[in-house]
Write a structure and sequence with these properties.
By secondary structure, this protein is mainly α. The chain is built from three helices and no strands.
């Protein structure tokens, strides 16, 4: 099969599509489910500081930051595989 050549009338034409909007992948509307997340004291203190400075609730700030990170991940701006490390742990075998 012969590969079709790209049109050369616009050399600066976009070759890649924009990633889909995060709201189409993870809608901001809908039921909110409470979940527990373990945070370091310093992380929680910084979240509280930012929430106080901006006048927003801590949970709203955390949801916004999470959605921001998810958007960057889906857009390829965050490479989690580069951050993974193999850690050996000891755990009990359950009876």
């Amino acid at each position: 099969m012969v590969r079709k050549r790209p049109e050369l009338d616009n050399l600066f034409a976009k070759t890649e599509q924009d990633p889909p909007e995060i709201d189409s992948i993870i809608p901001s509307e809908g039921r909110t489910i409470t979940t527990g997340v373990g945070l370091k004291e310093s992380e929680l203190a910084l979240l509280d500081k930012i929430a106080k400075e901006t006048g927003v609730a801590r949970n709203a700030l955390m949801r916004w930051l999470l959605r921001y990170a998810l958007q960057d991940y889906l857009a390829g701006k965050i490479n989690l595989s580069a951050e993974l490390e193999i850690v050996q742990t000891r755990r009990l075998r359950m009876p």
